[in-house]
Amino acid sequence: AAEQIGFSENGVWNFPNGAVLIKHFDYPVDDDDPSVTKKIETRFSIKGDDGNFYFLTYNWREDQSDADLQEVGLEEPIQIATTGGGTRTVDWYFPSNSECTTCHNSASGGSLGPRTRYLNKEYDYSSKPGGTLGNQLVTLSHLGILDEVITDTDTPNYLTHTSIDDPTGTVDDKARSYMDLNCAYCHQPGTGNRADFDLRLSNTLAQTGLLTAGINSPLGIAPDEEIVFAGDATKSILYHRTNSTDPTIMMPPLAKNEIDVQGVALLETWINQLQPQAPAPNLGDYRIVNRGSGKTLQVPSAAFGNG
Length: 307
Description:
The chain has 307 residues and is α+β, with helices and mostly antiparallel strands. It has helices at residues 97-103, 116-119, 136-142, 171-182, 205-208, 237-242, 261-273, and strands at 20-28, 37-47, 53-60, 67-69, 74-81, 87-94, 122-124, 133-135, 286-290, 296-300. The chain is built from seven helices and ten strands. The protein has a four-stranded antiparallel sheet, with helices on one face. It has a two-stranded antiparallel sheet with strand order 5-6. The longest helix is centred in the last third of the chain and has 13 residues, at 261-273. It is globular and about 65 Å long.
């Protein structure tokens, strides 16, 4: 039981001390054949005896024989074979340990990807002995890895991430899921982030505060710019930050040297179709007066003077 993962439906999973999460990156290095890849980086997230995660990054050698611990942040070029001959260069950034903790913060519990809403989908285990197609949460529960009994009847009731490539997903579901996955690990309470909104998918749009948040660092894109200007992405700071690789503007602020064109296009479409919020009624303009006749009248407050 002490080695099981503490399940949370909408929150952070609690990993036992000694847990190791591994994320490995291969990169396609031939524009004509995406199956040709090169090992680039392997990251370890390790939960220590003190209950905190620490992080190790390994940089694969050019000959692919082994990988070496990368102790400082580093940018290295990757050579990509292009169609018709020749090469192009893509820069890859290896984060330092301190940069890892910027996103893998205390609010995230040290982990980012293992969440109920991200893993609530089927996975093909058929390459494993006795494996078949099955829901990942149900499988982890069946194997005793989670401390929660989860069956196929439970999973439809869980909040679930909508992939940007899901042909059945709505623009709203895709955009909210995209921001939850790519932004909410910093943009939520408890991270010390200055921005006053909470992008977790468990919130309604109104609860995120995204449409009413104040601006700490204006970009000067429009006199009436907003974090999100409903109906106009060109006046929306969120759109311009995601559509930039300028270190003084871009979001996310670390390890970004390419714009996610598909993601930015999704956010642009989502913002442009948002309806501006209706102004709240000024209830102070009127008072309800009962004349004792059983009728209720609305009377301008100015008629009462200061009485």
